[in-house]
Amino acid sequence: MLAPNSREEFSMSRSSPKLKLGATVLGLMIAGAASGAEHPDFTGVWGNYRAPGAAAPQRGAAQAPLPLRAEAKAKVDAYRALVDPRGDTPGGFCLGTGMPGSMLGSGGYPMEIVQHKDLILVVYEAHAEIRRIYLGEPANPADLFPDRNGYSIGRWEGEKLIVETTHLKEAVDQGRYPHSDQAKVVEEYTLAVNADGTKVLTSNMTMTDPAFYTQTITAEKKWQLQPGVRLLPYECNEPLWDEHLERLRQGQDEPG
Amino acid sequence: MIRLLATGLALIAAPCVALAHHSAIRFDLTIRDNMVSGIVKEFVPANPHTKIVLEITDDKGTRDVEFEGHSRNNYYRAGWRDGMVKVGDKITLQSAPTRDGSDGGYALGVIAADGTRF
């Protein structure tokens, strides 16, 4: 699970998706021409963005109810009834969050982007989750299978990167936005520079999931470049392996 | 090896899936300044949470008390480095207590034997 000082910044709107740039971020797009690059370069390590002078986000703050369909709400409520009394989370069991939580929740633990022409790798430090955004030839749908982070294809629209994610597994265990396997997540990434020179990356996310929701879900996430920061390894199951070995040494494990 | 033995012996009977379970719901995180000192019996920096066992002596007597702490990665970014906390060190934890008042807590911060804080 994320540590208590981890945070995410997002908002939900029931209106149709629209781009929102933070008030503190100047609308100064980084033109590819400035660096001679064809597209903006998102390469680097990114952490949560906090506007100058802004208070730290409150963890556990009240959240607006989600526009879930009755059947979906029943599924989510059943899951919550199961885990909430114990405080169980996928992360507590060393399981990655999956989309969209992996993206929205990143930043407390940093996120690294490695950008190539036909492939963008997004690595979330927490649980070492990796998303591959394919900008080249898309895969044959018959070759794909559902996954917690789905399958992502990207394209450039000017200086904006559009990422569409499908093939998600049903995930009632998402911290904020549970979804069905019909969910489609579209992210629009833009890069801007604050007056103080801070590079700010924004993702405006839209999730459509008619099986779970009566309305479209939108959220915004911002990160700021963190020069000099490196991602750390995030092994999580090492103690479990150590303990298994110890049980074997004690001759007390079940037959293989 | 000490870590292996201690954790292995303590958890031999536990089902496999339970071993990786971590949850902060046991702790009252609204109280964040409970200072507890003791002798380190185990310090296992890990993700998602660090395990700390201290030998504590107070008016309840002397016993080993287990604490859960931030992830290894978060402690690293807060200044912890390998070898900074060793078995036998006397350290102090800034902790959130358990909700039911039992021994233990969530280690929000650590003061190492040499005074380093993370």
Describe the structure.
The complex is a heterodimer of chains A (256) and B (118). Chain A has a domain at 44-48 and 66-238. The model of chain A is unreliable at 1-36 (pLDDT under 50). Chain A contains 4 helices and 9 strands; from the N terminus they run H-E-H-H-E-E-E-E-E-E-E-E-H. Chain A has a 9-stranded mixed barrel with strand order 1-2-3-4-5-6-7-8-9. Chain A is globular, with a radius of gyration of 20 Å. With 256 residues, chain A is of the alpha+beta class. With 118 residues, chain B is mainly beta. Chain B contains 2 helices and 5 strands. Chain B has helices spanning 2-11, 72-77; strands at residues 34-44, 50-58, 61-69, 90-97, 105-111. Chain B is globular, with a radius of gyration of 14 Å. Chain B starts with a helix and ends in a 7-residue tail after the last strand. Residues 1-20 of chain B have low confidence and may be disordered. The chains are: A alpha+beta (256), B mainly beta (118). Chain A binds chain B through residues 1, 3-5, 85-89, 91-94, 109, 125, 232, 234-240, 242-247, 249-250, 252, and chain B through 3-5, 7-9, 11-12, 16-17, 19-26, 29, 44, 46-49, 51, 70-74, 76-77, 108.
